[in-house]
Every structure is written in C-alpha cells, then in structure tokens.
Amino acid sequence: MAFDLGNLLQQYIGGGANNGRAADDFDQVAQNAPRASIAQGIASALRSDQTPPFPQMVSQLFGQSNPDQRAGMLTNLLGGNGALLSSVAGGALAKIFGGNAPARVTPEQASQISPEQVQEIAEKAQQQNPGIVDRMSDFYAEHPTLIKAAGGAALAVALGYMAQNIRKQSPEKEGPVGILSNIFHKIFPGKKDDAPAQTQAQAPAAPTAAPAQPQAAPQAAPQAAPQAAPAPAAAPAMQQVDVEQILNGMQQSSGQQLNWRTSIVDLLKLLNLDSSLQSRKELAAELNYTGDTNDSAKMNIWLHRQVMNKLAANGGKVPADLRD
Q1: What is the pTM of this model?
Q2: What does the pLDDT read at residue 239?
Q3: What is the pLDDT of residues 137-158, one digit of tens each?
Q4: Which has the closest alpha carbon to 186: 194, 196, 176?
Q5: Cα dist from 98 to 72, 80, 85, 105, whole Å
Q6: CA distance 155 to 23
C-alpha cells in the first residue's frame, strides 16, 4: 500500500498532534514530500512564535551538527558578506577567515566558531536580510536529520504548515489552488478550470456526424437538418480565452515594462500578485517542483513554463512558443 502523506499530516492541523511522534513522522514526510514543501514547513517553524527565536534555533542546531553541516550552515549564514563577519564578536571572527567572508566555509574554519557566536551571526544576518530564514530553511530541508534536533514542538509546527498546504491541494477540490488559483482568476475570473478541457475533447465529435448524412436517401434529407442542429450549441464551449491578448491589454493599462512572456516575476507583478521568492517557492510546491529552489533562475524558467501549460490545458489560448 502506498504511503499516505496527507493522512499522516492530517493530525497536525490545528496543533493537536502528539509532539512526541513528530520526529518519526518528520522522517516519513522527508522521504516522500517535495523538498520545496519541506523547506516551507521548516521556515514556518523558524518564524513561529511557538518556537524559540530564529538566531537561538540556528545556534542550537549548529551545536548539534557535524563538521560538514556546520560549514554549510555558516556558508549560508554569511553569504560572502564580509561586513557581517566583521561586525560579530568585535571583528575577532574576521581573523579566522583572513578578513573576508569566504564563498564556502571549510569544516576546519567552522570548528573555530562557537554556537554563541553563530547565534550572533544569525541575529545580524536576519536584521540585514529577513530572507535569510528561507535560505537556511532550504539548507535544513537538505539535511532533515539535522532539523530534527530542533525538537518535537518545532517539527510539529513544520508538519502543521505542510498539512495546511496538502489540504489546499486536496483532489476533492476542483481546479487549481493557492497561487495558481489566483493566477487563473485574474486571467479568466469565475471560469472553472476543468470545463474547457472537457469541451475541447468533445468538440471534434460534432463534425463527424455531418459527412455521414449525404449517404442517406434523398427523402431522408429533411430529417438530417434537425440532427445537425445541436452543433451550433457546442460552439460557445469551444471558445478559448486569449491569454496573450488579455495580458498584453493588462500591460498597456499598467504602463509598466513587464516581460510577462518570459518572466514569472513580471507575470505575477502584472497580475498584482505577490512575486517574492517565498511566493514563487510556494507556487513551486503547488506544482510539485523537485529541483533546487536555491537556484531561483532555473526554478523561475520552470514555473513560467508550467503556468503557461496549465493555462493552455484549462481553456487558455497560449502561444505555442510559451508552452510545451
């Protein structure tokens, strides 16, 4: 029997789950859920008021990680920011790295940094760039055994967030959900996404009946006309929404130079939707993206293509060069 991810996560909706089982359940989820979804769950735990502050949690995890994991954590925290390094511990840490934050911290260098100093680095990093929480969450998603050291309460929060996303994407609901749903409603408000696919599939059936009629006897001709009558009724269902025309019209009205044809960021901006990296990661999770969400350029290209594919599959007339 296949593993039922949704059923396992269901118990974490509303925070009523037994935190003592969270570590074991997280193991199961880490083996079956998309990494982007795991990262978003971890990010929610790192930001939650039910868990210690982000710098404290990072320090705790650093203290319980192996040399390679410590090096990876510091690499992500510093992000090559020499100014950040010199502002911690009175500049003492800068000496360890020769005055500059390296592109990649070595295990040997990481061994010279204490958990307390890491907490200070994390605090400074969060002040300068709130997005550091997402970056660290992506790293922890790659090392699910490490994040378990955060404790059952934090894991339960992460699982609860993932459970909410799973419920949003329940197959019992019709059509796209979440961010994708917002995209659909902006382009064709009130349109049921599955209806166009059905009408398009049925459309070829109407012409096939017509050629058969001339084979009948002449006196049968008057009867053929009533049989052909239903064909016009199907015509409205065959009409597609011209996505290109709609988006070009939106762009003209906006007065902005937005390249919606190639950029998912510009497409979201044109639709007045959240185009932040976090929002795009959520969209990637909705669409079951399995690539590296740290590589935003590659993810963005994939997202744009998939959104165009979804629009085309659900009643949108999309230029051929923008879809598969």
Answers
A1: 0.55
A2: 57
A3: 999 999 988 998 999 889 988 8
A4: 176
A5: 19, 13, 11, 12
A6: 7
With a cut of 80, say whether residue 312 has pLDDT above it: yes
3-class DSSP string for the chain: CCCCHHHHHHCCHHHCCCHHHHHHHHHHHHHHCCHHHHHHHHHHHHHCCCCCCHHHHHHHHHHCCCHHHHHHHHHHHHCCCHHHHHCCHHHHHHHHCCCCCCCCCCHHHHCCCCHHHHHHHHHHHHHHCCCHHHHHHHHHHHCHHHHHHHCHHHHHHHHHHHHHHHHHCCCCCCCCCHHHHHHHHHHCCCCCCHHHHHHHHHCCHHHHHCCCHHHCCHHHHHHHHHHHCHHHHHHHHHCCEEHHHHHHHHHHHHCCCCCCCCCHHHHHHHCCCCCCHHHHHHHHHHCCCCCCCCCHHHHHHHHHHHHHHHHHHCCEECCHHHCC
Q: pLDDT tens digits, residue range 75-84?
A: 999 887 767 7
Q: What is the per-residue pLDDT for 136?
A: 94
Closest-CA residue to 321 (of 182, 312, 185)? 312
Convert the pLDDT of each residue in 257-281 to its tens digit: 899 999 999 999 998 888 889 889 9
